[in-house]
Amino acid sequence: MTTDSVPHLLATPNGPFVTTTPVVLRTATEVMSEHGEPMTWSFGPPTRVDVDTALCRCGRSDEKPFCDGTHAEADWRSTDTVSSASADERTLRLAGTGVTLLDDESLCMHAGLCGTARTSVWSMLEETDDSEVRGSMIRMTLGCPSGRLTAEVDGARIEPALPAEVHVVPGGPLWLTGGVAVTVEGHDTLEAANRRTLCRCGASGSMPLCDGTHGEIDFDAGGLGR
Predict the structure, then answer these.
(1) Which pTM does this prediction carry?
(2) In whole angstroms, what is the distance from residue 10 CA to residue 201 CA?
(3) Are residues 58 and 29 in the same domain?
C-alpha cells in the first residue's frame, strides 16, 4: 500500500505510467570519462507534474517522456511481470574483506557504472583487504541506478540519500529514487526500493522494469524538454 505522501506511478496495461500523486521529474545524464566510461550522474532542473500525468512507456510517443496516445495506434502490448521472489531471495551475497556485495542481477539496466576498462566491482571485491579499494568499490555501488548492486558493511546496507523523484535518462529508462512507489495495475505495489529503473523504450523483457534493451535497439529519446 502507498500513502499520499509517497510519490507513486501506476503502470497501466498496454499504456503509459500514470502519476497518482504529484511527482518531480528531472533529467539525469551519465557523466563520461575521456575514455567513454560512465563515472557519475548530472541532474537537470526539476519539473513538477500533477496527478494523472501520463509518461510514455511504449517508446513511440512524439512527446517523450510524456504519452501522446501513440501506444493505442500502434497496438503496443505491455508484458508486465511481477516476480514472486523477494529481493532477498533473488540477491547473491558475495563476501569480501569488511564488506559484502549484494547482487540482484534481475534488476540490471546496464548503466555501466559498476566498472571501468580496467576493473569492476566484482574484481575489486577480491582486493577489499585494501581499504582504498574497498571504499572505491562501495562508492561504485552507490551509482547503480537500478539497485542491482548494494554494499553491506557490518550487517547494514549502504544506500545513497536520494530525493523522491523520477529521473528521465536520455536514451534510457525512467530512474526512480527515494522510494517512489510503483503499482502494476492488476497486481500489488512492487517492493519498496530506494533505486529502481522502469522501461520506457517499450521493448524490455522484464516490464515494467528496464533490462537494458534500450541500448540494444539504440532507443532515441532525450530527457525533459525534448
Answers:
(1) 0.94
(2) 17
(3) yes
